[in-house]
Here is the input.
Amino acid sequence: MKEIVCVKLENEMDLILAHKRAMKLCELIGFSLITQTSVATAVSEIARCAIEHGKNAELVLCIHVANAKQFLHAIIRDKKDFTRECVEACQYAKRLVGDVEVTVSVKQAQVVLKQRLSLPRVVTEKSLDSFVKYFKLEPPLSPYDELRRKNLLLQDLAEKVQKSENDFRVLTDSLPLMMFSANNAGVVKYSNQWLVNFLGQMPDQLTSLSWKNFLHPHDYTVFAKNLNNAYAQQTSFNGQYRFREKASGKFLWHMISVVPLKDERQIITQWIGFIVDVDAQKLIEVTLKDNRELKATQEQLFENQKELQEKIIALNRSNYELEQFAHLASHDLQEPLRKLFFYSDTLNRRYSSSLGDAGHATLSNIVKAAERMKELITDLLSYSQLQNQHLLFEQVDLNMLMGEVLQDMDYRIQESKGVVEIDKLSTVMGNPLRLRQLFVNLISNSLKYRKPDVPPHIRVSLVADTENVSITVKDNGIGFEDEYKEKIFGLFERLHTRDRFPGTGIGLSICKKIAELHNASINAESILGEYAIFKITFPLTQDIQRD
Here is the structure.
């Protein structure tokens, strides 16, 4: 079996990628347009089930040879068994492709869609290699596709940087050499284990005064003068002095070297310091050799950090393009949706009597699907409008704002038989419109994820200190597992199927973005089946306008 392309299935955007790549592979193979559409539609049906009911699904498109016959295999698999929820989808897919095979094991559940290649010629190994190369080199299908690819590259780079940092620390801790680094403010940012073990602790500042307790009294005056001159003139500093060993209390002669590290513009970025025991000549020789390796490792680390920064810039650019795409797509899709609602309503009014039960059910499913699309477009547009938005800040009385929120949501609260308690809150600097949107989303979230037959109880409280003001929204709902407390703020992230709790998975993403625009933070904690708490922390000092 020859694997051609793989697509991770996590959200609605991945569903679009899966459909397009299935269509493209069918086109490369030489299928007719009807077969292309049938296969891609069948793939979309099963992929949608995997996204909604699976946990970490993926689609793999392959070419399989059996008994001198060639087949296109579309394999949708996940460690979680999603197949029990997609019986209807499998039946529908089976009408579109030649065969559908469902297998479930302890480790994996998968659905395989099989379409035979009925062509005058077989697809050769060379052709298969060209298919693989095409998908590897094809340009991004959308800003989201480009963002996904760059995210994967960024993750790989981050892993390399982390490995380099770990290797650097292992190397510096294993060398018979004491070393440290400090920033331009003189704050010591790093010291290896050898130095900490020798001195017993590490000075917080790279100043002569902070080193006084570690030097022989007769050496301190010269050391202080040389170090202060080097720091003021931004030049290297070398000297030999007696340092006290913490374990023995003895003063031992050491050579210290403090070197300014510069970037390509000759601007000092940090200071690197080395301390060597000069009582052992052999140790000096080993240290000089290892210093070269250490500097190479350090330079490689800085190169990796520079590359990471470039990737971050590229990622920000991709995020901007994705925001523009979301905004345009949301507006462009509004018109066909309005027509879909109009024609559905016309069909229901004019031909209701001739539709029959099956027709009415189908029409109802069309309307529900259109309503889900409308909700997704609305949320996506709302999220895109937050990107790079200029917000005018003013003093906002949260007590008045929460009163307006409860008034706007009065019907929903009464419908759920819920109770919302508001403690005495404070005033914060912010944008009233966006803050109202933030708390409406949080309270709506608590009303939605309530326990069956248990009226929701929501309490909004204040926690303040000298630097921050925190507002907590606590409910008595179904909660969530601790491992998902970061994931729930991701775009399109859902912990439940739409059948159980409707929604788009964008609401908490909007909350997080609004908090960021206010220079605030939002986090969550929960006990599954008992409660969930969302905490928004605002700084007491805030700019009047944020770009």
Observations:
- The CA atoms of residues 290 and 296 lie 10 Å apart.
